[in-house]
């Protein structure tokens, strides 16, 4: 079956964490887990909150090329394995209106002052291309140019 953005979004709905990779100083790759709180309808953009002091913020400011890696339910549990890697560009957003649009209640665990938290940053990852592995099927899907 041909992968579409709608099918990709459906597959990603149950995945809580992605590994966000950035280009660190000196050209090294830095990766860290980021939660989408399982409240995502993937449309080519992914959104993550973080703190201004996080290394990934400096990495994205210096070089916006990023990668997101997702792993679906485990084949060991009898599920068809699903993996996706999204190539994209990161954007740092410091706008409280954008914060409010993407805020979910579970984020209060890390930022009890909500969108008023000093130093909070929203990372938007605009996906350009998705590489996917869905059981025996694999391929690429262009998300944007």
N-to-C SSE series?
HEEEHEEHEE
Q: In angstroms, what is the radius of gyration?
A: 16 Å
Q: What is the CATH superfamily label?
A: Electron Transport, Fmn-binding Protein, Chain A
The CATH topology turns out to be Pnp Oxidase, Chain A
Mean pLDDT metric: 89
Largest sheet: 7 strands, antiparallel
CATH class call: Mainly Beta
Distance linking N and C termini: 24 Å
What does this structure look like?
By secondary structure, this protein is an alpha+beta fold. Strands 1, 2, 3, 4, 5, 6 and 7 form a seven-stranded antiparallel beta sheet that branches. The chain is globular and about 45 Å long. The two termini are 24 Å apart. The chain has helices at 5-12, 55-62, 96-102; strands at residues 17-23, 29-35, 45-51, 65-71, 82-93, 120-134, 137-142. The longest helix has 8 residues, at 5-12. The model has no long low-confidence stretch (mean pLDDT 89). The protein has a single domain, classed as Pnp Oxidase, Chain A (Roll), CATH 2.30.110.
List keywords for this structure.
145 residues, alpha+beta, Pnp Oxidase, Chain A, 16% helix, 42% strand, globular
Topology:
Layout: H1 5-12, E1 17-23, E2 29-35, E3 45-51, H2 55-62, E4 65-71, E5 82-93, H3 96-102, E6 120-134, E7 137-142
Antiparallel strand pairs: 1-2, 1-4, 3-6, 4-5, 5-6, 6-7
């Amino acid at each position: 079956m041909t992968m579409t953005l709608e099918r990709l979004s459906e597959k990603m709905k149950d995945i809580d964490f992605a590994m966000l990779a950035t280009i660190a100083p000196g050209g090294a790759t830095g990766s860290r887990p980021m939660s989408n709180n399982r409240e995502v309808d993937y449309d080519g953009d992914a959104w993550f909150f973080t703190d201004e002091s996080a290394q990934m913020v400096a990495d994205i400011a210096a070089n916006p090329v990023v990668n997101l890696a997702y792993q679906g339910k485990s084949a060991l549990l009898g599920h068809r394995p699903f993996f996706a890697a999204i190539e994209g560009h990161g954007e740092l957003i410091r706008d409280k209106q954008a914060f409010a649009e993407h805020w979910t209640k579970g984020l209060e665990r890390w930022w009890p002052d909500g969108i008023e938290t000093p130093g909070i940053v929203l990372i938007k990852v605009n996906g350009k291309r998705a590489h996917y592995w869905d059981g025996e099927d694999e391929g690429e899907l262009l998300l944007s140019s």
